[in-house]
Fold this sequence. Notes:
- The chain is of the alpha+beta class.
- It has three domains: about 5-15 and about 40-165, no CATH class; about 190-325, no CATH class; about 360-505, Serine Threonine Protein Phosphatase 5, Tetratricopeptide repeat (Alpha Horseshoe).
- The protein is about 40% helix and about 15% strand.
- Strand 8 (about 110-120) and strand 9 form a beta hairpin.
- Helix 11 crosses helix 12 and helix 18 (about 475-490) runs antiparallel to helix 19 (about 495-505).
Amino acid sequence: MKAWLAALSGILQIASAQTQSCRPCHAAIVDTYLQTGMGRSITERPSSLRATFYHKLSNRHYDVNAGVMRRYQKGADGAVVNEIAKSIDFGIGSGNHAITYANRTPAGILLELPLSWYRERSALAMSPGYDKPDHFDMRREISPACLFCHAAYPTDAAALPSSIDCARCHGPASAHLAKPSKENIVNPVRLTADRQREICFQCHLETVSTGIFDSMRQPKRDVYSYQPGEPLSAYKLYFDRADAPEPRFEVNHAGYRMLHSACFQKSGGKMTCTTCHDPHSAKTKPASCTGCHAEASAKHSRQMGSDCAGCHMPKRKPSDAIHVTVTDHWVRRQPKFENPAREGYEPYRGRVVPFYTEADSVSLDIANVQAPNEEAVALYRLYLQRDAKDVSVLAALGNALFRLGRRQEAVDTLEKTLTLEPSHPGALNTLAIAEATAGNLERAIALLDQCRKMRPDHALTWFNLGATYQAMEKPLQALQAFREAIRLQPDFAEARARLAAVCGSRKLRGC
């Protein structure tokens, strides 16, 4: 392990059993791979890390000590308020650029923590997407879809994630381990150029990190169902903003930017990621450019040296992670850019269009849904004819039906959602509100308690509990629920307004 990373906190990568099982026959490759960013994508808890940080925009203080991250604010009298502490159970990221810390709740839910360690700064700062007044703080869930690109496929639901392993590019190895043969393992070299690229694109083709529906899995495809060698379009569809791709540059834009490059477009589809990169060492292959640009390379190497990428693929700060510097893979003769001074959060309001993969009309229209209207309801129903068990679409349909005043249809849809995923927070909260508006307050409380027990960090659930207790004329319970919502989310303005209303109408302890 690199000395600077070991010095940080003595953390070690968590290698999967799959990677270790390849060592007897491929020891040199495994040892080299384990030093790459992918081979070190998940790290153990950094128990010796000690630091403090104050985030001015949200007025929140943080300290890290003994493997615990603590957040608090200070009241007008200087007293500590809204305090929360979470254990740091593992880190996401190799440390080549950054490590983002994560917590695992007693229910097994993964939460992203608000501070990350950045190599360029050799210090903590807000995690990407958090440098704003209304950030997620300690309640942002890490979904399987988010973890997909940062960890190996899970084999044990009770275990912590492990680093990206050999199976990500070579597929399942059980048959190969039982009887080694080149016929029962995926060797990307034997695939077409398209399928080779798509092994990398499964994680490196993000078009936009926020603001749009950038991709969706095909019907009946599980998060972890992609297999190396299959067409990526059979697993997932991709969408991009309809406006020009420039000047956008984001942290996970390697594949996206490469596809815009003249080098790729003029290669006749032959250029792949491994044209330049050795996947087992993450090193750039020598003479990557000279194969097509021998004369120009010879001329410029005499004048400027042999670092083509330094000029034509400059290292830049992405707009969604300004504390790191990464290579821009849009290869150009004379690239021009300005590094952002702060992270950009301006939402995009326009349409999205298919990118790289072709999209059917229903999927494209769903990707363009911006409001829970009748058109959205029709689209969701069409999609559910393809995959009746898609929980996210069922929950979206239930929410849309409720907002359109079609209560009983909404209730039926949300209850079906909960038979598939009993702890779905959106479905539980929407169903609770539907029951409460019909006067079924006890049923609403039961649903919200069900959500609270599984997801105690979900501030909206506590707010809805408070509002329901308020409707039941139980001010003490309402007060406690609103206070918890504010502790979890200090910028929850409506919870503060409701709390003030409860306190203003009655003399209660704690007001």
